Amino acid sequence: MKSSLIRLSMMVSLLAVSAAGQTQIDLRTQGKDVDFSGASSTKPDQIGTSLPAVCSLGQTFLLTNATLGQNLYVCTAANAWTRQGGAAMLAQLADFAVTRTSAQALAVGAGCGPAAPCNLRLGSTVYSFTQGCTATLSGSGTGTAYIYFTPTGALTIGQNLTVAASAGCVAQSGISSFPPGSIPLYTWSAVSGAWDAAGGTDYRAMLAAKGISTSTGLLTVDAATSTTISLDTAVVPMYLTTTAVLDFPSIPNGTCATDLTFTLGGAAVNDAVEPGLPGGIEGGLVANMRVAAPSTIAVRLCNLSGAAVDPASATYRATIVRSF
Length: 324
Hints:
Blueprint: H1 2-20, H2 27-30, E1 46-48, E2 60-63, E3 72-77, E4 80-84, E5 98-100, E6 105-108, E7 118-122, E8 125-129, E9 133-137, E10 143-149, E11 155-159, E12 163-165, E13 170-173, E14 183-191, E15 194-195, E16 201-202, E17 218-223, E18 226-231, E19 238-246, E20 260-263, E21 274-276, E22 285-293, E23 296-303, E24 314-322
Parallel strand pairs: 1-2, 11-13
Antiparallel strand pairs: 2-3, 3-4, 5-6, 6-9, 7-8, 9-12, 10-11, 10-14, 14-15, 14-16, 17-18, 19-24, 20-23, 21-24, 22-23
């Protein structure tokens, strides 16, 4: 009996030692087909009020003090958090996306490449981008970067910081807002020489509209993606004018000099011409203008002064107001 009690006591002691030294299970390597659907609760994300400065690809983080629906972040590259959802479906597109790859670097359009170019259309011109670029912050400045396209298709990092741009984009200093006529992509703030780890603001938009209103005398015609603006000639007359320097020879009394001509584009035969004579024209001289041929004004100068006159070289103006 005593022997049995001793053996039982030893077994209990061994079980206690075994329980005390038991290691926790590593589900990543020791689990198989892990199914948490029956668990009373699960919390797969880290939680906090600020994003960790260090992360590895695939980590997730719930930023509890951010706007609901815009507070889930995924680590998409080493130490780079990307906000998920809430910022509209467009935020999920890769074209011209901006991501923070380090405290000092922003990657712009990293997904643009020869096999999958990112295209921008301005009017009838399409710009194709086959590489992204990097905006690198230096110094200890605090401010905001404005990332946009200029009306000529230049991918620009406008800012009031100290930023260097790699090939593929341009750094423009002294920018404190999106310039008129630009196409906004993102804004990204920096504090004390580091890009905001919580991300920037996405301004990309694939749907847009711009209305054109006309005033008196203007007409618009819409066709597919273009709008043609023209004058309403029933309201607005056509106005043509130009000047020319003419030097007539000496004109005997009672005669007219040979016509001199100059060009007025758009002038048509039978248009009425309003002559504009030089202020210092000699007394007794009479001038007449007419459209001698399409776009051609003829000037006739006659002398009724009573003596021969040699007119000085002077500037003459022809004006046509054509009503419809």
